Amino acid sequence: MAKVPVQFTLNGSEKAEFVESSTTLLHALRDKIGDTSPKGGCHQGTCGACSVIIDGELRLSCLTLAETCGGADIRTTAGLAESGVLHPLQRAFLDAFATQCGFCTPGMIMAAKVLLDRTPNPSREDVVEALSGNICRCTGYEPIIQAVLAAARANSQNAA
Amino acid sequence: MQLRKDYFADVRKDGLHEIGQGRPRLDSPGHVTGKTAYFADRNFPGMLHLKMVRSPHHHARIRSIDTSEAEKHPGVVRVLTAKDVPHNVYTILILIQIGPEDETVLADGKVRWKGEAVVAVLAETERAAQEAAAKVKVDYEVLPAVFDMEEALKPGAPLVNEYHGQNYYLYDSGECRKVRFGDVEAGFAQADHILEQSYQSSPIEHAPTETTGCVVAPEGNDRFTCYTNTQAMFFTLDNTSIILQMPGSKLHFVGGTVGGGFGGKVDVIVEPIAILAAKLTGRPVCFIYSREEEMQISSPRAAEKVIIKDGVMENGRIVARKVTGYTDAGAYSRHSPYGAQKGAAHYPGPYTIPNVWIDTYCVYTNRTPSSAMRGFGVTIGDFALEVQMDKLARLIGMDPLEFRFVNAYRDGDMKAHRQPTEGAALIECMQEASRVANWPVAEKYMAMSSYRKGA
Predict the structure, then answer these.
(1) For position B21, what pLDDT does the model report?
(2) Contact predicate B239/B86, CB 8 Å
(3) Which of A43, B59, B70, B443 could cross-link to B143 by cystine, CB 3.0-4.6 Å?
(4) Contact B304/B128 with Cβ under 8 angstroms?
């Protein structure tokens, strides 16, 4: 099958791949580039486990064709920690016991990051709305909501 | 509240202070950084994708299978049918002598539920495997099917599973698991009121976010590494060893990281066929359920029907309980005979009842095989029992919590399956619940204890 070249930055690094025109960004990231932090839970855009950030927008990588990502700035949970120091969201998820099986966690953190980037001091309702596209089947939603609120508080204290 | 330290006194350490302390989970740092390696995060060069051809019928005889078109499909490497599986008929619990073997890895001559695996297709890409699977031609003769447990137990019902010979699991106690304690009919004769109610539940899917699957890599020396999200590592290892007729030393299982299980990943379904495929092709193989397969093919919690008849006195004592329980195993046993058996031991509930009569049936129907899920055999029973307890309390005009105090088991009481009660804490639990929920009960109940002098 014919392949097309695609070039983008992933967590700040230049990446170039040849992909089939039907290849999803999820497949390209996981199986070609080797970033397995986005997870495939449903491959139909309902579970949110594959969530990544493309040019600042939260996107479902299972419904995004890789070839449409040329020149994009793509961010995943694998690239969130800097020099081994956890991002405040990662630290908050740890401290709040906001992970159980962990499969939804990278997607949850991406959704939470887009929220906090835009709304540094979100209300509880803002958090619930922002995470509404991400399913946690272990049903640990409350600790996840608390983690996002705690990360927001930590950010605003650092900024002050 | 009294803290009893005599239980497990020989292993109990007094120097532990963990309760009330937050302790970091060992796996969380991997989860929040995306580094935790789930089975599907393993990728090997040249890995093949396995897709299953599944039965579109609930019950049918297979007249013929034609894989020739599928084999010609570009990218297809191998097509597997029943004859390729060394020991095709198996049952998971044979490891603890719960037989007979009653399920096929790949259907042989017959399918017994809609979705049953018939042919496995291996191809270079998932898409090629999917397209080729659609080209496998199976000629079916559709047979009458039965979906209702009571219908399945009637004479003349279609026989679901020939390995059993009848539509129920034959225990060493006969057609059902039985508990007989005291004289239940005498108890009913003595009762002020009798209440008989029927409760039933539908199958429940676990719906883990990570679907069932495995990735297998040949090690080049006739040994195979299987990365799996099984919740039952050694069941899977031992059953795979039986199915493939390979010593366990040739099978290297790597697991423990599960993206949600809830009991739905204790069956041995994907690993044997994926390892066989890796053995026959010499290539790494990945077999991952689609979301549709996870919802439609993986075992759900069994549907259950529970009929409870209780005799109760005006003063609140339950004097007789008769329970008939039905567990819908679907077409194959998997863990359901064990689930139904657990129900038999459980149906008196945490209550002391002098006259008990219990029958629990494990029934075969042409439905998706059911298996383990969070307290299977007990959870639906508890729903039925506790709703029944509320109805009994209402019947005699008693507070539902006080009614449970009257009947609660206490140390020294003999349970219906003849295990003496030991280490009970139900009274104390309910006293705490009464306080926390602000549901006051009479002082005499707050003065009760699970512990009797001399017990």
Answers:
(1) 83
(2) no
(3) B59
(4) no
Class of domain A3-79: alpha beta
Q: Are strands B117-123 and B224-228 parallel, antiparallel or unpaired?
A: unpaired
pLDDT of residue B190: 98
- Single-letter amino acid code for the residue at A139: T
Scanning every residue of chain B, which has its alpha carbon at the shortest distance from the alpha carbon of A94?
B28
Is A105's CB within 8 Å of B32's CB? yes
Q: Which of B93, B166, B79, B165 is nearest to B121 (CA)?
A: B79
- Domains in chain B (CATH in brackets) are 46-143+207-296 (3.90.1170.50), 177-204+300-424 (3.30.365.10)
Phi, psi for B149 (deg, rounded to 5): -60, -45
Write out pLDDT tens, residues A35-82: 999 999 999 999 999 999 999 999 999 999 999 999 999 999 999 999
DSSP structure string for A64-131: SBGGGGTT-EEE-GGG-SBTTBPPHHHHHHHHTT--SS-SSHHHHHHHHHHHHHH-SS--HHHHHHHT
pLDDT reported for residue B4: 67
Chain B residue nearest residue A86, CA to CA: B33
d(CA B89, CA A4): 47
Q: What does the pLDDT read at residue A125? A: 98
Distance CA B329, CA B301 (A): 9
Take residue A58 and report the two structure tokens written for it.
């939260």
Query: Could you tell me if B250 and B257 are in contact, meaning their C-beta atoms sit under 8 angstroms apart?
Result: no
Q: pLDDT at position B455, please? A: 42
Query: What is the rounded distance in angstroms from the CA atom of residue A41 to the CA atom of residue A102?
Result: 12
Evaluated on CA atoms A141, A142, A143, A146, the torsion sign reads positive
Contact B261 A90 (CB under 8 A): no
Q: Which among B24, B31, B207 is the nearest to A102, CB-wise?
A: B31
pLDDT given at position B423: 87
CB–CB of A34 and B43 under 8 A? Answer: yes
CATH 1.10.150.120 region(s) of chain A? Answer: 88-159
What's A88-159's CATH class?
A: mainly alpha
**Partner A contacted by B374 (CB < 8 A):** no
Average pLDDT for consecutive 10-residue bins of chain B (455 residues)?
A: 70 77 90 98 97 98 98 98 98 93 98 98 97 98 97 97 98 96 98 98 97 97 97 96 98 96 96 98 98 97 97 98 98 96 93 97 98 94 97 98 98 94 93 96 96 63
Are residues B157 and B151 in contact, defined by beta-carbon separation less than 8 angstroms? yes
